[in-house]
Amino acid sequence: MGFRQAFQIADIPNPYPHQIQTFEALQEGRPVLLVAPTGSGKSEAVFVPFLTLRSKSLPSRLIYSLPMRALVNDLHRRFSSMVQRNSPVRVAAQHGKRPESVLFYADAVVATLDQVISSYACCPLTLGPRHGNIPAGAVATSFIVFDEVHTYDPERGLQSSLTLAQRLHRMGFPFVFMTATLPKKARDALKERFPRLKEIVAEEADIPVRAQRQVTLEVIPDSLSADLVMDYHGRGKGRTLVVCNTVPRAQELYTHLQTASSTTVHLLHSRFLDEDRDSKDKQLTEAFGKQAPASDVILVATQVVEVGLDISADLLISEVAPVDAVIQRAGRCARWGGKGTLVVSTTVEHTAPYDGELVEATVEELPRVTGDLTWAKERGLVDGILGERYLKLLDIGSASRAMYFLSKAAFYGNSRDAAQAIRENDSVDVSVHPDPEGLGAEARWLPRIPVSKGVLGRFLEERRTVIEELETETADDSHSRLTVRDVSARAEIRLGRFYVISTHDAGYTAETGLVLGEPGQGMVPSVVAKRERPQWARPRLESFAEHAGKAMKYLEEIVIPKEGFALDRLADYVSLPKEDLLTLARIAVLSHDLGKLTEGWQRDAWKYAKEWAVVPGNSELLDNQERELLEKGEGGTFLARFPANRHAPLPAHATVSAYLMADFLQKKWGDWGLAAALAIGHHHVVRAQEVPPHRMADTWLEQLQSLCAAFGHQDIPWEELAKARCQASPTCFPVSMAPLDKEKVYAAYVVLARFVCLADRMGAGGGENAILDYEIWRAHT
C-alpha cells in the first residue's frame, strides 16, 4: 500500500510533506524525531504508518505516550474513530482514570508517560506490582511514540524516556520523538546519540491552519490586574484567556473580575476535584472550543491550559514565564487560524514556581520579536534561551538519577520510585473539614487534592495554625484505625501524607476550588463502593497435563504469532538463535506449574475438589471429562485447577517450579536460562523468591517427561532434575528480580514472563477472551 492510499484511513487525501517523510522513514524501520507545530497532523503521521506497517517494519503494538490524561482521552477518541471506519485494530486509553488496557494487550495503547515508564519497571501504577512483568514485556517490545517531549520534566521524565528509547534502539525497534519546540541543540544531541534517527521538520507554510494564523505579540511592563484585563478585553469583546503563574493569583484575579464586570468569567487551575474539573472542561469547550460561537467571555487559568485543552482565544494575556511555557500558552491563541493577540506582562511579584534566570532571559528576549509571532520565531526564542540548558541535560551522565529510580522501582516494586523517575514529586494530599480532630473512619473517604509541600509549608507559616496529618490502617471495609498527628510547622510536613485543614483556615467550592488562607466550606466524605470481583465461570477440574497442553496451544496459536516481530528483534539483540528463544519460552510454559506436583499441593487440591463435588447440584455442573477425572481420584492423575467452595489456600508453587528447572536452564542457556527461570517463578507474583519446603509426588518426573515428549522437548537431563525432588527446609531463589541495569537479561526476562503469564491465563480462561475480559473488568472497577 502506498502512502497516499494509507493516509486515506485518516481522511487525509493530500498528506503534508512531513507526514509523507515520517511514513517513509518508518517504512525503513528508522526512529524519527518529528518537529511540527500544533494542528499539523503529527499524531496521524505516526498512526497511519502503524496501521499499514505493523508486523512488517514496525512492531504489532503501538504505545503512544503523552504527558496528560486529557491529551490521552482526546487522542484515543480520534484514533478510535479512524479504526472503526477502516480497521479491526483495538485502541485503548491507559491512565489512572481510564485503565482500559492494564496488561497493554490492546493493539494501540494511548497512555500517559507515567503509565509507560512505571510499567517498564514492572511496577505499573494501575495494576500493582504482582503482575507487573506482563505490561513490562509489552513496553519493552512496542513501537513507542513519545509526544510533547518538550513538556517532559527535563531532568526526570525526559531522561527516563531517553533511557527507554536507547534500549529500543539497541534492540532494533523504531520509535518516535515528537515536539513543537525542543531546542535545536537538543535535537542535534539526540541525533548524535541515535545514529539512525531521522529528523523531520515541518514547514509552517505547508499547513493551512498555521499559514493562516496571525498572532501579534505585545510585551508590557504592567503587572496583571483586573483593570488591565478589562481594558484589553473591552477593545474586542471576544474570547479572552488570562494565564497566571500561581493558583492564588488566578483565584484573586477571578474574584476581582467577577465583581468588576458583567462579562462571563470562568476559572481553571489544578486544585479542583476531578468531577468539578471535568464539568469545567465541558463548559470551556462550549465557550472556547472549535464549534463555540463568538461570545463575550473570559477564562482565568494557570499552567493547566498549556496542554490538554482543545480551546482557543482571540486575546491571550499571560504573566511572564520561561519561554517554552509562554509559547505553550500562545498555542491557545488563534489556534485554528485567523488573527489573535498575545499580551505578556513582564512584572510579577516573584518568579515562582519557575527558574528565575529563565524568566529573566525571557523578559530580555521577548521584546526583540517583531511582526507576527510565527512558529519559526517561537523556535528561535527557544533555541536562544534554552539551547545550552538542554544540551547539558542531554549529556549521557544526566540520566543517572532517572536510572537510579527506575532500577530501584524494578528491584523493590515501589511505584513511588517509578513516579520519581518521571517527575519530582514534592506533593501532599489536602482536604478541608469543619472538625479535623473529630474525624473517625469516614476520614478515609474525604476527597483529596494534591498540593506541593512548599505551598502547604508557606500556608502554615502565614496562617500560624495547626493542621492534622491523618493516616488510616484498614483491615476491611468496616474496620479501620485512624492515627491523627498535629502539624504546625513546615519542617513537620512529610511527603506523600494526607493533611486535613479546618474550615476556619481553608475552603472548597466547585466554583473556586481549594482556597488556602480564608475560611470556607468543607469537603464531604463520599463512600466509595466496594470493588466487586466479576462472577467468573467456575474453574474447571483440570489435570496438570491438560492445563499445560492448553497453555502451549495458546502460546503457539496466539502469543508467538502476535509477538513475532518482537521475537526476531530480541533474538538478534541477545545473540541467541530464535529457535533457542522459542525453546526457552516453550519449556517455561510447559513447566510453569511443575510446583503443583508436590505431595502437599496435590493433597490439598484433591481435598478442596472433593468437598466441592459433594455439595448438592455441583456434580451436575461437571462435563464428562471432569467426571472421569474425579472418578480416577487422587492416585490416578495430577490436578492443576479445580473448583472450591471457599478460598482455598495452597502451598506456593511458582517458585518451586523455578527452583526445579533453574539449574538445567542456566547450565544450558546461561543468563537467558536465568531469565526463563525467573519468568516461571514470577508468573503469579513478580519478585517472588522464597521456595517453601516441598516433596515432589511419586511419578512427577514421569509426568513431566511425558509432557515434554509430547511437545518435542526431550533434551533435558532428567537424572539431574530428579535430585531436586525434595527440599526439607525453606530456601530462596538466588535472585528476586532480573536487574534493570543488565538490559539484555531484563529484556529477555520481561518478554518471557509476558509469554508465560499470557499463555497461562489463556489456558485457564479458554483463550484470548480471558485477557480481554480481565482488561475490561479492570477498566470498570
Provide structural commentary.
The two termini are 41 Å apart. The protein is built from 29 helices and 27 strands. By secondary structure, it is an alpha/beta fold. A hairpin with a 2-residue loop joins strand 17 and strand 18. Helix content is 44%, strand content 17%. It has four domains: 3-206, P-loop containing nucleotide triphosphate hydrolases (Rossmann fold, 3-Layer(aba) Sandwich); 212-374, P-loop containing nucleotide triphosphate hydrolases (Rossmann fold), CATH 3.40.50; 427-516, no CATH class; 542-779, Hypothetical protein af1432 (Orthogonal Bundle). The longest helix has 23 residues, at 743-765. Helix 2 (17-27) packs parallel to helix 3 and helix 21 (578-591) packs parallel to helix 25 (671-681). An eight-stranded mixed β-sheet has the order 4-3-5-2-6-7-1-8, sandwiched between helices.
How are the secondary structure elements laid out?
Layout (H helix, E strand, L loop, with lengths): L2 H5 L9 H11 L4 E4 L6 H12 L8 E5 L2 H18 L4 E5 L2 E2 L8 E5 H8 L12 H7 L3 E4 L10 H15 L3 E5 L4 H10 L4 E4 L6 H4 L1 E11 L2 H11 L2 E5 L3 H14 L3 E5 L5 H15 L8 E5 L13 E5 L3 H8 L7 E10 L8 H10 L9 H19 L6 H13 L2 H6 L6 E7 L15 E4 H11 L3 E10 L2 E9 L10 E5 L3 E4 L3 E4 L25 E2 H19 L1 H10 L4 H14 L7 H15 L10 H9 L6 E3 L12 H16 L1 H11 L8 E2 L2 E2 L4 H11 L7 H5 L3 E2 L3 E2 L10 H23 L3 H11 L2
Parallel strand pairs: 1-7, 1-8, 2-5, 2-6, 3-5, 6-7, 9-14, 10-12, 10-13, 11-12, 13-14, 15-19
Antiparallel strand pairs: 3-4, 15-16, 17-18, 17-19, 20-21, 22-23, 24-27, 25-26
